[in-house]
Design a protein that fits this description.
9 strands; single chain; 39% strand; globular; alpha+beta; 28% helix; Cyclic Phosphodiesterase, Chain: A
Amino acid sequence: MRLFVAIDIPQAVREAIGELITRLRVESRDAKWVRPEVIHVTLKFIGEADAKQLDPIRTALASVHAMEAVEMQFRGLGFFPDARRPHVLWCGIAASPSLAELAAGVERALEPLGIPRESREFVPHLTLARLRPDRGPRRQLEKLVRAADELKSYDFGSARETEFHLIESQTKPSGAEYKTLESFPIVKGS
């Protein structure tokens, strides 16, 4: 099974992002656009795990907490690695310190189980599309970069989240489907 740890986003934010994706899709038809109903804030991609690893992972995650709930503001668009070489279109997240605290706690809790830490710094974002610079006309990417630049301060809404989730990703012909295996409180005792 393929696993990751994430925080959900509110329906209103999901809808605002869905409207934006509909608008931007015409700028780059070669992009692989994420379905709004599956967008989430990834804390940790675990990857493939077998069934006997599931209970230790659950136990480790149950020990992870932050001092307060996670406050997030979803604002602006950008690209990884950058707008000159766009591979991923993302929505930015301005978050309370508890989000980074939670992500670091997840990393620490899972490392003793043989799940390696991320080599890159945690950068909270929502992935909206994966771009294929090697496919399709370059002008499509340039149009998308220009359109995204005009929306770099667009506000998609905010959230206050009190739970994080262990999620299984199942690849289907229609795209990835996610199943929440367990939810955990962000603040101990809540």
